[in-house]
Amino acid sequence: MNSIPIEYYLILSAFMFTVGVTGVLIRRNAIVIFMCVELMLNSANLTMVAFSSYLGQSAGQIFVFFVMTVAAAEAAVGLAIIIAIFRNKLTVNIDEINIFKW
Amino acid sequence: MNLELIIFIVLALTGAISAVGMITRPNPVISALFLIFNFFALAGLYLLLNAQFISIVQIIVYAGAIMVLFLFVIMLLRTGEEPKLFSEKKHIKYFAIVIAVLVFVQLGYLIFYEAPSEYISQRVQQSMEAGTIENIGQQLYTTYMIPFEAAGFLLLAATIGALVLAKKNFE
Amino acid sequence: MPINSSEYLQILPFLILGLGIVISTLFEMYYKNSENFLPWFSAILFLVTGAIALTGLHDQTVLFGGMLAAGGKSAIFHFIFNLGAAIVVMSSVNYLNKYGANFGEYYILLQSSVLGMMMMSAARDIFMIFMGLELMSICFYVLAGINRKKASANEASMKYFLLGAFATGFIVYGIALIYGSAQTTSIDAIVNNFSALTDNVIFIVGFAILLIGFSFKIAAFPFHMWVPDVYQGSATTVTGLMSTTGKAAAFSVLIAIMTAIFSENIPNTFVDYFAALATLSMLFGSIVAIAQDNLKRMLAYSSISHAGYMLIGLSAGNESSVAGIIFYLAAYAFMNLGAFAVISVIEGENDSNTELNAYAGLNSKSPVMAFFMALFMFALAGIPPMAGFFGKYYVFIAAIEADLTWLAVVGVFSSAISVYFYLRVVVYMYFKESEYDFIIQKNNSGMFAVMVSGLLVLVFGILPDTLLTQILSVINY
Asked: Any residues with CB less than 8 A from the CB of A35 and at least 6 apart, and which?
């Protein structure tokens, strides 16, 4: 049934990964940056599921399951951090949050 | 051109375009909606790959729970729109995009150079069995029991952490 | 896969620490003064866990269908993590009051992060590495910003979180590519097929992406931008934990996944990457640290250069270099923890007294603190007979054995530079007049932490062979 070569999936996920990395580098809003990280995680998940399905193993899919757990935990903590900083500085723009010199 | 390839192309284009849309829209709410689109496209691709369980979890957990959390926070903070993408620090951003394109071309070239499809051909029957809830559940509680326990501690720590950061009373 | 119940006995350190986390959580929920009770409970918990881990040193097995290893290298790492965390707990007791974040949750997160590190160093499967890494990192993100009223802590925590999550993205993508090309997630299987796998381009790409992710976590040069701000902005005791045991945990993973190049005659495919990273980190860290006036920031840059010295060991890629790295990590953990413990004792409210000026004439204010700070500075600079010297010595020797003499020369050069800024602290403490007066609050447990780390630095320095022979006896597994 499956006539799609695995490269197609890998290319798609490589594309999404680079888009995510670019987003982290060019966006300034902390929440959006975090969403770009989620995109990176998802592209990795796509690679995982593609390999897992083509190899006929379930290990990759279980890994994806764990990645989702981690993403949920990171989202909880990350958004709490972002809210905490917003309460102090009234902004989430990472250019304006700069007490320390780089 | 078979049906499967057409579905793949449609989903892949949705995913790719919504990914680009997410990083280019100045309004964070629209970015988040694009990301949800992307997750739905991925869920479709997972179905195409016979990973039914992951596909459902993708929609329920990722699109349903995590992204709702994001939207809540965005609307709670009302951060407004970012300035236009290339209005400040133009050169660094152009540079970042050029680098990203180069990295992508490199990755794509290497993937086709290695051509894993020459030695990995899809085992349809096995992949159908691998993606079922029964199989994943069974593996999760036997082979992957220790990482599963670790996930429990991870969620406990994350809950405590989020509570400390958001709710702790200061004298 | 049936699980043998005797396997649970061999992961006793994990079980004890896990049980401790649950008990601490319950205490925190139902007991009002938990923040007065939990430090002592955690200190004892860490010491017990560390001691039990060490008893299994020579009893190396792989458990739970290849998920976790017990004994051997991981036992040594477990001991370092737990002892380090116990020292951190001791220095936190009074410090957290000054810092304004004396919460019981702090100790629960501390315990959870140590559990994560232990999983990382014992992992025999990529799944476990990932889960341990995330458990550790998420606890660190929160610990860095535990006082949410402080803008500096907020900023540190957010920078750490964003860059840490970014690194996680790289690590996950790298793991995905490695899984696909190796068709397994077992580290042992990957290590056994390492030379065959390095012909596979996707494996190389995945491995390189994974290494980039871990370079963030060990704070090597091009991936260091978060380090100074995070180390300066976080609570001093937390910085101590992140910079020592956190780094040791990341290195334990690097050692585990690179085992192939250490044990057999397999060419070190990534030698150029590691050598470049090592050179840049050492020189950058040492040179920029000279310009720093804040002691925490200076130690942050110095931690970048120490990551560089440890990377020399990875580029050398032979057996003595593994032993060297592990020894270095142990020595670095205690000298850096000691230095941060001293800073946490001296530090006043609102992050005051962390500038170098505050240390002028410290000898007249508190001779004991001045003595120990001098000891740690000498050790960090690598002056014999302190532990830091032997750490550097072993990795440099390993580099020379591996025909990387130039790298060892760069390392010696960089440590010569670093002597300047470490000794500057000593000069300030002993030969400068006090610039302004402040009172060092009485802090017995902090003092105790400083003394224990000072003692360990001296013991490792005077009797390096005791530790080294133990390490050498277990790495041949």
From this structure: A23, B22, B31, B32, B35, B70
Predicted complex ipTM? 0.95
CATH number at residue A39: 1.10.287.3510
Q: Residue C105 corresponds to which amino acid? A: E
CA B139 to chain centre: 23
- Domain residue ranges of chain C, discontinuous segments joined by +: 6-475
Digit-coded pLDDT (tens) for B94-120:
888 888 888 888 888 888 887 777 777
Pick the residue of A32, A39, A100, A101 with the most C CBs within 10 A to test the interface with C by mutation.
A100
Would the CB atoms of A47 and C142 count as touching at under 8 Å? no
At residue C195, what is the residue type? Answer: S
Report the share of chain B in percent with pLDDT over 90: 32
**CB A32 to CB B111 under 8 A?**
no
d(CA B87, CA C202): 38
Backbone angles phi, psi at C261, to 5 degrees: -75, -15
List of residues 6+ apart from B119 with CB closer than 8 A:
none
- What range defines the domain where residue A30 resides? 6-89
Q: Which amino acid is at C265?
A: N
CA C116 – CA B156 distance, rounded (Å): 12
3-state secondary structure of C33: coil
Please give the structure tokens belonging to residue A40. 């990176």
Written as one letter, the residue type at A5 is P
The burial of B3, by beta-carbon neighbours within 10 Å (0-12 exposed, 13-18 middle, 19 or more buried), is given as: exposed
Q: What DSSP designation does C294 have?
A: B
Q: Give how far A89 is from chain B: nearest CA, Å.
A: 12
Spatial separation of the C-alpha atoms in residues C117 and C111, rounded to whole Å: 10
pLDDT recorded at residue C402: 84
Q: What is the pLDDT of residue C46?
A: 93
d(CA A86, CA C438): 34
Residue B63 CB neighbour total at 10 angstroms = 18
